[in-house]
Amino acid sequence: MKYSFIVPVFNRPDEVDELLESLLHQEKNDFEVIIVEDGSKIPCKDVCDKYADRLPLQYFFKENSGPGQSRNYGAERAKGEYLIVLDSDVVLPKGYLTAVDEELAREPADAFGGPDSAHESFTPTQKAISYSMTSFFTTGGIRGGKKKLDKFYPRSFNMGIKADLYAQLGGFSKMRFGEDIDFSIRIFKAEKRCRLFPKAWVWHKRRTDFRKFWRQVYNSGIARVNLYKKYPESLKLVHLLPAAFTIGLSMLALTLIAGLIQIPLSPSTGLIITLSALSPALIYSTLILIDSTIQNRSLRIGALSILAAFTQLLGYGCGFINAWCKRILAGKEEFAAYEKTFYK
User: Fold this and answer.
1) Which of the 8 DSSP states describes residue 332?
2) Is 147 in a helix, a strand, or coil?
3) What is the pLDDT of residue 335?
4) Residue 290: which H helix or E strand, with range?
5) Domain ranges in the chain?
6) From 142, 203, 212, 253, which residue has the greatest number of CB atoms within 10 Å?
7) Cα Rg of the chain (Å, integer)
């Protein structure tokens, strides 16, 4: 068997149903599916039973330990030459495995990953969040974009690796967040061939509202500092930009307040200060609005993308600054936020 899909699940039976349905329509069928239920209170076993006679599917239930350890649990029971790790909230286009096959035939790879996109059925909020997580203007293109500020690191929503290399590296670490980047860093440090497969993309639902999205990116900011403590060389300029954005926006907010206070005393001076404080945010918002509106062909999604972009950059930036103060300045141990509610 060539491929083993490994999917950790936590309280998401409806999403698993969509993912398994998409696997039924793959043009290639040399694969198995391993679903690992990570201590869910809303299990997906009934969903998996629906596909038991149509897919080579194994379902396992285990105590909650986080996605990384659940992937390791599935990998230990996999039979494929390549392990393909997916998040439960993705859906595969029918040509996904064909694209993987073609890339591996063109040039061998020990590990690989693909980009993600928003499906037309996603809500406007989901499409706005997808834009924010994939746009060059928010992430620097490091998640698989054509333009990028750093090399591509496969992420766990769409990551493939040779089974023997997975075992050699010991699988995912016990990090609760950022464990996929940790794994990718170890792949590169082992000097293995790791590539982006541009056509092996997935539809990725991500978070369904901005509150959940904030929690996700806040933990991503914390995880980046945790990764820096393990691998100092992994911290790049692009990872500092959200923190710089957060600090800069805070300073502009203080300047705005000063300008508004100044207006009754000196209208012209106060107005100049106020406009100078508002201009950077307005210019950036306009850029996001135009780019997202063109890409999504929707002014509404373009407007929501402004909120998504600010949520992403401020959430990541606040998490990063918090972790930097606690771990680098105060010397505290590795930590994360929203652990009890992150997956709900």
Assistant:
1) P
2) coil
3) 80
4) helix 267-296
5) 3-114+154-206, 124-151+207-344
6) 203
7) 21
- For 83-236, where are the alpha helices, taking DSSP H only? 96-106, 124-134, 136-139, 163-169, 179-189, 210-230
pLDDT band at 146 (very low <50, low <70, confident <90, very high): low
**Any idea which architecture 3-114+154-206 has in CATH?**
Alpha-Beta Complex (3.90)
Q: Averaged over 229-238, what is the pLDDT?
A: 92
On the question of pLDDT at 342 being above 50, the answer is no
- Do 6 and 86 meet the contact criterion of CB atoms below 8 Å apart? yes
- Length of the chain, please? 344
Phi-psi group of 295: left, alpha or beta (phi > 0 → left; psi -120 to 50 → alpha; rest → beta): alpha
pLDDT cut 90: percent of the chain above it: 84
Contact between residue 343 and residue 11 where contact means Cβ atoms under 8 Å apart: yes
pLDDT in tens, 173-198: 999 889 999 999 999 999 999 999 99
